[in-house]
Design brief:
Belongs to the nitrite and sulfite reductase 4Fe-4S domain family. Keywords: 4Fe-4S, Heme, Iron, Iron-sulfur, Metal-binding, Oxidoreductase, Thioether bond. It is an enzyme of class 1 (oxidoreductase). It catalyses: hydrogen sulfide + 6 oxidized [2Fe-2S]-[ferredoxin] + 3 H2O = sulfite + 6 reduced [2Fe-2S]-[ferredoxin] + 7 H(+). The structure is a single chain. Helix content is about 30%, strand content about 20%. With about 550 residues, the chain is an alpha+beta fold. It has a six-stranded mixed sheet with strand order 6-7-8-9-10-11. A five-stranded antiparallel sheet has the order 1-2-5-4-14. Strands 3-15-16-13-12 form a five-stranded antiparallel sheet. Strand 12 (about 345-350) and strand 13 (about 355-360) form a beta hairpin. The radius of gyration is 23 Å and the shape is globular. The relative contact order is 0.10. The structure holds iron/sulfur cluster.
């Protein structure tokens, strides 16, 4: 099937409009309206793999077709990284090729965050051999390498695939990694285990050319945990575990969440979906996005814009009438989670009597050597399974009670805290200027420094708190839904010098009280002043808060 059909993959569902409209296939608009739509029409992003294996990895970086380099390679998880030494002031003024390094970021998808110790060992070895030791845990449960040379990509794929991992559609206008509860199948309080649905969606739709040309990225989350642990509110489609009063455990269907510019929280369609129907409903929602999604402007090409125009009721109707050909069952909303922490950090009993142990690296930053050691330590304590979380944390599963203390000590010795401070636990940071071409400021090292400063200044602070740091106005670290969201930008300090700083968003949240933080006009803080500012905010919060106030 061509990447963009001359005709719709389905019969156009509406009469073609005389106007160019939003480039929706379902109303007969197949002429590409921008460069991205054109390169997708010219060739399916999935096809770039053959060129990487047969041409680019042999002839080197300079042989790569620009439309592959800055477009289709994403379909296999590859982005060029930022050339070192270019400051944030140049981000917007340089041409993309001037920012491009000859090295890549490579994202490994970890659907459901599920890893074996063997897989983690291979991830660690690849990091040390091909990625200068880099390997970050992302807030979408993925692993990200940097410093990857195109020459090494086929060998990296071979090693990953040998242990059942892949980079297929880890980036690009595709169905991205499927978030899953990191404690699926083991938690005592689980409502329903969504793992079979994750596996079936992966089998049917990932790497499937029928869904490899979407208007933009498509994010999925499935969790049956009452802790609401996959940030379902900010995914394009999410299935959230609920108990139906008549039908039993199943999933509440949410659509149209997404942050970045024009952030929107997902909306409930009021429908209950049993486990075995999740893949079909997923197919219906992603097909609506493919067929009706807006393709004219990249900034309006997420499902949230279509939902905003249609409303939840019409969306459900079209899903039922045109795609599922049946009615969905009405169902209840999820209940308020009992904890504000959703990360599973700490020691918890599994339903089989063993334990899982969640730990917090600093802002998702680990390295290949540490990942290899984590795999070793887990193995020495009788575990062969680990999970990554949507909060840049990790969990070792299946630990016998008598092994727990020793495991905790071994992890802590690697600076992986099982009982971290609120600051270590609640601070996330995106990639930032170290590697990201869109970044304006540094984030990872700054986040780590901030944790140290806050731990030293207010060691008694124990409230759950989220401090999310972004290197630019995008939302990779979810600043809009943090208690304290920090959006990187350049600003003038007191002496009139241009310095790195942050616009502050206060009071955002996920969960049943989900909402976006407020951007107080003019509230910008230089990077250097961050610890002073946050210390002031938190001390004042502690002194003046009302009962139950967050
Ligand atoms: Fe890059 Fe901006 Fe995303 Fe951070 S938020 S990783 S700087 S695009």
């Amino acid at each position: 099937m061509p990447a963009t059909p001359e005709k719709s993959p389905v019969t156009p569902r509406r009469k073609a409009s005389r106007h160019r409209g939003e480039g929706q296939w379902a109303v007969g608009h197949f002429t590409p309206l921008n460069g991205n739509e054109q390169f997708k029409k010219d060739d399916d992003g999935l096809n770039v793999r053959t060129r990487i294996e047969t041409i680019y990895s042999k002839s080197g970086f300079d042989s790569i077709d620009p439309n592959d380099l800055r477009g289709r390679m994403r379909w296999w998880g590859l982005y060029t990284q930022r050339k070192p030494g270019i400051d944030g002031g140049k981000t917007a003024v340089l041409e993309p090729e001037e920012l491009d390094d000859k090295y890549f970021m490579l994202r490994v998808r970890v659907d459901g965050g599920r890893l074996t110790t063997e897989q983690l060992r291979v991830i660690g070895q690849i990091s040390e051999e091909f990625a200068r030791g880099t390997a970050d845990i992302t807030d979408r449960q993925n692993i990200q390498y940097h410093w990857i040379r195109i020459e090494d990509v086929p060998e990296i794929w071979r090693r990953l695939e040998e242990v059942g991992l892949s980079t297929t559609e880890a980036c690009g206008d595709t169905p991205r990694v499927i978030l899953g509860s990191p404690v699926a199948g083991i938690a005592e309080d689980e409502i329903i285990d969504g793992t079979p649905a994750i596996d079936e969606i992966h089998r049917r739709f990932i790497g499937n050319p029928a869904f490899s040309n979407l208007p933009r990225k498509f994010k999925t989350a499935i969790s049956g945990s009452p802790l609401l642990d996959v940030a379902h509110e900010i995914n394009d489609v999410a299935f959230v575990g609920v108990e139906h009063p008549e039908h039993g455990p199943g999933f509440d269907l949410w659509v149209g969440g997404g942050l970045s510019t024009n952030p929107k929280l997902g909306q409930r369609l009021g429908a209950w979906v049993p486990l075995d129907e999740v893949p079909d409903v997923f197919e219906g929602v992603i097909s609506i996005f493919r067929d009706y999604g807006y393709r004219r402007l990249r900034t309006r090409a997420r499902l949230k814009f279509l939902l905003a125009d249609w409303g939840a009721e019409k969306f459900r109707q079209i899903l039922q009438d045109e795609y599922l050909k049946r009615e969905l069952v009405d169902g209840p909303a999820p209940a308020e989670p009992v904890s504000r922490w959703r990360d599973h950090v700490g020691v918890h009993r599994q339903r089989d009597g063993r334990f899982y142990v969640g730990f917090a690296p600093r802002v998702g930053r680990v390295d290949g050597a540490t990942l290899t050691k984590i795999a070793e330590v887990a193995g020495e304590h009788g575990s062969s399974r680990l999970r990554t979380t949507a909060e840049q944390k990790m969990i070792v599963l299946d630990v016998e009670e008598q092994q727990v203390d020793s495991l905790v000590s071994a992890l802590e010795a690697l600076d992986l805290r099982v009982r971290p401070s609120s600051f270590r636990r609640g601070t996330m940071a995106c990639t930032g200027i170290e590697f990201c071409k869109l970044a304006i400021v540094e984030t990872k090292a700054r986040g780590s420094w901030l944790i140290d400063e806050l731990e030293r200044r207010i060691p008694q602070f124990e409230e759950p708190i989220t401090i999310n740091i972004n290197g630019c106005p995008n939302a990779c670290a979810r600043i809009q839904v943090a208690d304290i969201g920090l959006k990187g930008q350049l600003m003038l300090d007191g002496d009139g010098n241009q310095v790195e700083g942050f616009q502050v968003h206060l009071g955002g949240a996920l969960g049943l009280e989900a909402g976006f933080g407020r951007k107080v006009r003019g509230l910008k803080v230089t990077a250097q002043e961050l610890p002073d500012y946050i210390e002031r905010v938190l001390k004042r919060f502690e002194a003046e808060r009302e009962d139950g106030e967050r």
